[in-house]
Amino acid sequence: MIQHQTRLFAVVDPTATHQVALVKALLIAKLGGCHIHAFLCVYKDIEHAGEYSSSRKDLKRSTLEDAEIWLEELMQPCKLSGVPYTTEVTWNSKWVDSTIRAVEKSGCDLMIKSSFHHSKARRFFSSTSDYKLMHQCACLILFTHQAQDWKSDRIVACLDLESADPQHTRLNTVIMRDARAFAAIVGMDLYVACAYTEGIDREHLPLKTHGHDITREQLGELYDVEPERVLLRQGNTVESLQAICNETDPSIVIIGTLARTGIKGKLIGNTAEKLIDLIDADLLTVN
User: Fold this and answer.
1) Any idea where the domains of the chain sit in the sequence?
2) Is the whole model's pTM more than 0.85, yes or no?
3) Is the pLDDT of residue 198 over 60?
4) Over residues 194-216, mean pLDDT
5) How far is CA 269 from CA 32, 238, 245, 276, in A?
6) Mind listing the pLDDT tens digit for each residue in 249-261?
7) Is CATH 3.30.2010.10 correct for 154-286?
8) How far apart are the C-alpha atoms of 67 and 61, rounded to whole Å?
9) Alpha helices (runs of H) in the chain, residue ranges in sequence order
10) DSSP class of residue 34?
11) Fold classification of 7-144 (topology level)
12) Measuring CA to CA, which residue among 143, 80, 85 is closest to residue 284?
């Protein structure tokens, strides 16, 4: 759960010059009085060891020492800003698995990771790190595309109101809880987006007023959001949410993700997986 003075887990990219996740983590930390745990996973094959080619142990020691020095240099903006932080450097060829174990051990509430748009083919034929983290990581994840400050003061929380099963109902509740808390930390206005194909199942919604069609006013009252900030769109879910984002130009989109595996998961996917490559806003996933 996100709250003031929460713990942020920033994933440092050893291949990148500009650390997008660290910049965004620092921004959030200064706004919310948060602690940053910066995590860096490194690894080198022995054939790329250079002067240490005769000893894997020396290669590992040297690489970790250099990484720790580099990471401490990256954390200087935190030190200058008075933001509390800790660092962790680990050696592992499977950095995603190492990251998942580390964030669970750290007790952090929010992971922040840089993300870049991928083609459909690449997402389909290779399980990218973003997908693996969505499926396997229990904490909230902010996938951020850009290091600069957010361009607008809007957050859009995407809800699934078509599914009446308990899992989706619980997920909607968690999304709204975390969206409201995150909006308070970063000082943004909260909008609610509901895309549907057939119709919204009103039977599982505790609406105070009745009628054939569900209105913005009803949903605004239900979720304690002004009616003009309730965004309803009928049509393909992903296309509708993409259109809503294009129109409202939010800085952050919050969406639930339910892990899908196997061939069916690859063919169907989930909305969060598809949306991450279609919008410019940062994507905060909740599960």
Assistant:
1) 7-144, 154-286
2) yes
3) yes
4) 72
5) 34, 11, 20, 12
6) 999 999 998 654 4
7) no
8) 10
9) 20-32, 56-74, 76-81, 95-106, 120-125, 129-136, 166-186, 216-223, 237-248, 262-268, 271-275
10) -
11) Rossmann fold (3.40.50)
12) 143
